[in-house]
Amino acid sequence: MSRHQARARFGQNFLKDQVVIDSIVRAIDPQPQDRMVEIGPGLSALTVPLMARLDHLTVVEIDRDLAARLRQLAGPDRLTVIQQDALTVDFASMGDGLRLVGNLPYNISTPLLFAFLDAADHVKDQHFMLQREVVDRMVAREGSSDYSRLSVMLQYRYRMHKLFDVDPQAFEPAPKVVSAIVRMIPLPADRTRADDEALFGQVVQRAFSQRRKMLRRALGDWAGQVDWQSVGVEPTDRAEQVSVQGFIRLANDLARHVRPEASCA
């Protein structure tokens, strides 16, 4: 096949280090019957070793030329190629027990992570390669400078583990940042949930939109409706000091008084 030129508009950096590839596959531990979906397979560095251990693999690839290459690897009985932007794919419609994997395009990684939330009820686990600073935010705990809206919204829905870093030289072309692998396991149905999840998302968004301000100011007119003592959060706290459970209690208290806004996107 002719050499594929990486396209910046798709955020393409192709994994080439076999040691790293083997480490990722071991971490994923594919089993033959797994319903696995790879996002952004690129030049198939992970696709080929995954297929060697799976009865069938589905891949989502936006690049038309790469999708055509992928279809040459195997027939549709072994490999399904979806040529589409992952942001527009309805993963929830693929059934239950999905295992999502991939080297996510760094330029749209955060929107993708939020999009995957809609399919979490149908997912067994997720293993992604992302920019290390994004992974550090994903797994950060309250009190950390990395703790953010992304931390809260993902930890509300998943149990997460940072597995290992990946050096830029493992890619072609080499990105300007260090990457990392993260494992995300959806929390069970009996997890602690907000009474109004739309409002919960809006509370978190408001709190972190002005993260240097105390909550009594960052939450605006909502602050006067909070029973701070019963919630167990101080009005002088900043967003980065509040745990996921604290945000749930805060949103639940506000749910008695506040109607959620139309959107918190």
Automatic annotation (TrEMBL):
GO cellular component: cytosol
Highest taxon listed in the record's lineage: Bacteria
Principal subcellular localization: cytoplasm
Residues that, per the record, bind S-adenosyl-L-methionine: N13, L15, G40, E61, D85, N103
Recorded catalytic activity of this chain's protein: adenosine(1518)/adenosine(1519) in 16S rRNA + 4 S-adenosyl-L-methionine = N(6)-dimethyladenosine(1518)/N(6)-dimethyladenosine(1519) in 16S rRNA + 4 S-adenosyl-L-homocysteine + 4 H(+)
Annotated GO MF terms: 16S rRNA (adenine(1518)-N(6)/adenine(1519)-N(6))-dimethyltransferase activity; RNA binding
Entries under InterPro entries matching the protein: KsgA/Erm (IPR001737), rRNA_Ade_diMease-like_C (IPR023165), rRNA_Ade_Mease_Trfase_CS (IPR020596), rRNA_Ade_methylase_Trfase_N (IPR020598), rRNA_adenine_dimethylase (IPR011530), SAM-dependent_MTases_sf (IPR029063)
All copies of domain Ribosomal RNA adenine methylase transferase N-terminal, residue ranges: 20-188
Name of the protein: Ribosomal RNA small subunit methyltransferase A
Organism: Orrella marina
Gene (UniProt): rsmA
